[in-house]
Design a protein that fits this description.
The chain is of the alpha+beta class and 453 residues long. Helices cover 42% and strands 8% of the residues. It has 4 domains: 95 residues; 105 residues, Serine Threonine Protein Phosphatase 5, Tetratricopeptide repeat (Alpha Horseshoe), CATH 1.25.40.20; 165 residues, Herpes Virus-1 (2-Layer Sandwich), CATH 3.30.40.10; 52 residues, Membrane-bound Lytic Murein Transglycosylase D, Chain A. It has a 5-stranded antiparallel beta sheet, sandwiched between helices. It has a two-stranded antiparallel sheet with strand order 1-2. The longest helix is centred in the N-terminal third of the chain and has 21 residues.
C-alpha cells in the first residue's frame, strides 16, 4: 500500500458515508465508516453544513442512531448536541416523535450525569424526579452511571435519599468490572464503602451460559497491519465459519476494501467490534439487538429470558428482534481467512542475535525465548550439530514481532430490577433475514405510548 493510498481511501470513505447518510441510503456503508472512525459521526467537513449525526436524526432513524451511538464508547469527545455549522442541534433537527423522545432521553441522561460530575445534587434530584426511569441508565458514550459518581464523591446522604425513592442497581459496573463499591474503595471513601456493605447483597452479575470466568482474546498484527488471531481462536472460528450467514466467496485477496478497513481500525475498536459484550468471546453468530449493540445470538437469547433491559446500558429494550450483523460477520471471516493463510505460510522472521553462554544448547535457548527448535534450526542452517555450540558464538533468534497482545476480561452484566415474567415463554420465528424473539412482555412494550418531556 502506498503512503498516499490510506488518506485517499479515508477521504473517499468519509465522503461516501456523508452522501449515503444525506440521501438515506446504504446505511451499512455509513455504519462501517463510523466503526472505523467514531469521530466522523460529528465531523463536518469543509463545504458541508451537517455531520452524519444530523443526517441520521433528520431522517428519524432511531434504530440507526442507536447502532451508531453504540460505537462511540471509546470516543471521549462525542457530544449528542454537537452543533451544525448554522448553530442547530439534533433537538432542532429531529421531526419524528420517536426520535425526539430518544434525543430528549439522551439529553436528560447527559444533564443528570453532568450535574453529578459537578456535585450539583439539587439539580440532579430535580431531573430524576422528572425522569425517574433514567437513574440506572447512561448514554452509550458515557463512562459512569450516576451510582458511580456518587461512589466517587462518597456522598452517602444523597445516595440514601435517592436509593430510598428510586432504587439504585448496585451491580452496575464500568470499566474493568468496577462496581460502586470498587470505585468508593479506590478513592478511599470509607463511609460510602461501609454504607454499601450494610446494604443487602446486590444481585450477582452472572455471565450468560457456561462461559468460563475469564477469557483471553489475543490479537497480533504483523508489520503490514494484518490481524493474526491465536491458534485457539482461529480453530474455534474456522469451525464456526460454515454457520455464518454469508457466502464463501469472501477472501482476503478479492476484498481489498474490507481488509484496508480492518488494517485501519484501532486495536481497541477492533476488539470492541468482534467480541460479545456479554461473554467477551469472539463473536461467532453476531446479531444486532434493538439497543444498537451486537451480541452472540445464543447469549442474548438467554438474556431475553430474564430481562427486558439492555445488558450494556440498562435502557429498556423497545423490542426483542434480532438481525444478523453482516458487516461484523464479514470482518470476522476475512480476519480468520487471512490469519490462517499467513500463519500457515512459510514466514521470513525478524531476526535478532544471541551470544552463546557456557552450558547453552539450542533447545535451551529456544525454550527460554518461546521459540520452537525447528524455528531455531531454520534460522541457523549453518549449525550442523544442534548441541555443539561455541561460547561467544552469535546465532539468530527468529522473533516474530507482536504489535498487539491484549487481554479482554469478561464484562459482568446484571439483570434489571424489573425482570420479565419467569413464566413467559420465548418463541422464535426464523427467516433468512432475521430472528425475532417474542416474550410476553414484548407485546406490552410495543403498545406503550411515548411521551415527550
Amino acid at each position: 500500500m502506498s503512503q498516499h493510498s490510506q488518506p485517499e481511501n479515508e477521504s473517499f470513505r468519509l465522503a461516501a458515508a456523508i452522501l449515503n447518510a444525506r440521501e438515506n441510503i446504504d446505511f451499512e456503508n455509513v455504519y462501517q465508516a463510523i466503526l472505523l472512525r467514531p469521530e466522523w459521526l460529528t465531523l463536518i467537513p469543509p463545504g458541508h453544513r451537517w455531520a452524519i449525526l444530523h443526517q441520521i436524526v433528520y431522517h428519524g432513524k432511531v434504530d440507526q442512531l442507536d447502532r451508531l451511538l453504540a460505537l462511540e464508547g471509546n470516543n471521549a469527545k462525542f457530544r449528542i448536541l454537537s452543533p451544525t455549522n448554522d448553530g442547530q442541534t439534533v433537538l432542532d433537527i429531529a421531526e419524528a416523535r420517536p426520535m425526539l423522545e430518544r434525543i430528549n432521553r439522551l439529553k436528560k441522561m447527559d444533564e443528570m450525569l453532568n450535574y453529578a460530575k459537578e456535585t450539583n445534587w439539587t439539580k440532579c434530584k430535580e431531573l430524576i424526579q422528572e425522569r425517574p426511569e433514567i437513574i440506572n441508565e447512561k448514554p452509550p458514550y458515557r463512562y459512569f452511571y450516576l451510582i458511580h459518581h456518587l461512589a466517587y464523591t462518597g456522598d452517602t446522604k444523597i445516595f440514601d435519599d435517592l436509593h430510598k425513592k428510586y432504587h439504585f442497581d448496585l451491580s452496575l459496573v464500568v470499566g474493568n468490572n468496577k462496581t460502586a463499591y470498587d470505585i468508593a474503595s479506590e478513592n478511599e471513601r470509607e463511609d460510602f464503602v461501609n454504607y454499601l456493605s450494610k446494604l443487602q447483597t446486590p444481585v450477582t452479575r452472572n455471565e450468560v451460559g457456561n462461559h468460563p470466568s475469564s477469557s483471553d482474546v489475543e490479537i497480533v498484527r504483523n508489520p503490514d497491519g494484518d490481524v493474526l488471531l491465536s491458534k485457539n481462536d482461529t480453530s474455534t472460528l474456522t469451525t464456526s465459519l460454515s454457520q455464518l450467514n454469508i457466502g464463501n466467496n469472501i477472501t482476503c485477496e478479492n476484498d481489498t476494501n474490507l481488509y484496508d478497513y480492518i488494517r485501519g481500525i484501532s486495536d481497541q475498536d477492533l476488539l470492541h467490534a468482534i467480541t460479545d459484550p456479554i461473554s467477551k468471546k469472539i463473536l461467532q453468530d453476531p446479531v444486532l439487538a434493538s439497543d444498537g449493540y451486537t451480541y452472540e445470538r445464543k447469549n442474548i437469547m438467554i438474556w431475553f429470558e430474564k430481562s427486558k433491559n439492555s445488558p450494556v446500558n440498562g435502557t429498556e429494550l423497545k423490542d426483542f428482534e434480532l438481525k444478523p450483523n453482516k458487516i461484523i460477520e464479514e470482518m470476522i471471516k476475512a480476519i480468520v481467512l487471512r490469519s490462517n493463510k499467513i500463519q500457515s505460510s512459510p514466514a521470513v522472521p525478524l531476526a535478532t542475535y544471541y551470544k552463546i553462554q557456557q552450558g547453552d544448547t539450542l533447545s535451551k535457548i529456544a525454550n527460554a525465548n518461546h521459540i520452537t527448535l525447528d524455528e531455531m534450526k531454520a534460522a541457523n542452517p549453518e549449525l550442523k550439530n544442534d548441541d555443539f555450540l561455541q561460547i561467544g558464538q552469535n546465532i539468530k533468534l527468529p522473533i516474530v514481532q507482536k504489535l498487539i497482545d491484549k487481554t479482554v476480561t469478561p464484562l459482568p452484566v446484571s439483570y434489571d430490577t424489573k425482570p420479565v415474567n419467569p413464566h413467559s415463554i420465548l418463541t422464535t420465528a426464523t427467516t433468512i433475514e432475521d430472528q425475532k424473539l417474542i416474550p410476553e412482555t414484548a407485546k406490552s412494550i410495543k403498545n406503550e405510548s411515548i411521551s415527550i418531556f
